[in-house]
Design brief:
By secondary structure, the chain is α+β, with helices and mostly antiparallel strands. The chain has 2 helices and 2 strands; from the N terminus they run αββα. It has a two-stranded antiparallel sheet with strand order 1-2. The mean pLDDT is 90.
């Protein structure tokens, strides 16, 4: 934990740490085919837990974001499963 805390503070500062995510998702209209649904763009901001509570998880996620590992990913929701 101490090494992750040190690394996170060195790379990203003492916090609070926030990550802004750009989203694009369809505006669902069940009367039309999904391929015709207009796309909606929005942003969400995730605030990480404090480093004293979760140093390894926060550092790992921030490192992944920094290195672009989350860029272009897709999330799938299946509410009817």
């Amino acid at each position: 934990g101490r090494e992750s805390w040190r690394e996170a503070e060195e790379w990203f500062g003492p916090g609070p740490h926030k990550v802004e995510i750009d989203l694009e998702y369809p505006k669902v209209n069940t009367a039309d085919a999904p391929s015709t649904w207009p796309r909606t763009r929005n942003k969400i901001i995730l605030e990480m837990a404090p480093l004293d509570l979760m140093p390894h998880s926060v550092n790992l996620f921030l490192q992944q974001v920094h290195h672009g590992l989350w860029d272009g990913n897709e999330l799938t929701a299946n509410p009817e499963h």
